[in-house]
Amino acid sequence: MNINKILPISFCFLFLFVTVTILNLNYSRKRGYGYEVTDNEILSTNISCIPEIIRSYERIKHIYGKNNTLFFRYVNNTCSSCIDSQLTEILTLQEEIGKDYIWIFPAYPDDRNSKIQLSNELAKYNYMNIPASLLLIPIVNDEPQSYFAYMNGEGEISMVFVPDRDKVQYTRQYLLEVKKLLVKVN
Q1: Is residue 36 part of a domain?
Q2: Are residues 70 and 150 in contact, defined by beta-carbon separation less than 8 angstroms?
Q3: Do both 91 and 171 map to the same domain?
Q4: pLDDT tens by residue, the chain, 186 residues
């Protein structure tokens, strides 16, 4: 074959390949497969007890008043590697925006060993051990679920997010959205 015929055909195939690849990447980002997820679908969750979570924060609202604050809630028998991963993500956010806007609410027994454990594990964070009877811990498939909640300047919980251990990028995107809110209002 003549090189003059092969060259234009090769360019056509190359152009077609690049076009299909770009379209595929754009589609996958919109559907939430990449790290640049922009849809608000990640800020919602399939946990049905979100209204109960929000009502349970009414019991502790007097402690925090009307501050813009991110809360992270978990129980002591939750997957420890999952909690460690989420705490690492929170620490990264905390280094960027400051410690004052983030609180960790574990639900551990009120005994000496738990207090020592919490003071060691959460020394870098603002935290308060709050019993599950005072602040709800959702149970899904017989497992307690950790979650994030954002309290806006009006003292209302405006965003609840339940992280998924298989989709860390959603947690990162949620924390990025919270960071934007906190930077904007403070």
Answers
A1: no
A2: yes
A3: yes
A4: 566 667 667 666 555 555 555 555 444 333 332 323 334 444 444 456 677 777 777 777 766 666 788 999 998 777 788 888 899 999 999 999 988 889 999 999 989 999 999 999 999 999 999 888 888 777 777 778 888 988 887 778 878 888 887 788 888 999 999 999 888 766
Residues in the chain: 186
Alpha carbon distance 74, 166 (integer Å): 18
Pick from 31, 165, 30, 180: nearest CA to 86: 165
Kindly report the pTM of this predicted structure: 0.70
Instruction: Look at residues 59, 20, 46, 37 and name the one whose alpha carbon lies nearest to residue 155.
Output: 59
Please tell me whether residues 17 and 49 are part of one structural domain.
Answer: no
Tell me if residue 77 falls in helix, strand or coil.
Answer: coil
For the beta carbon of residue 102, count every other beta carbon within 10 angstroms.
Answer: 22
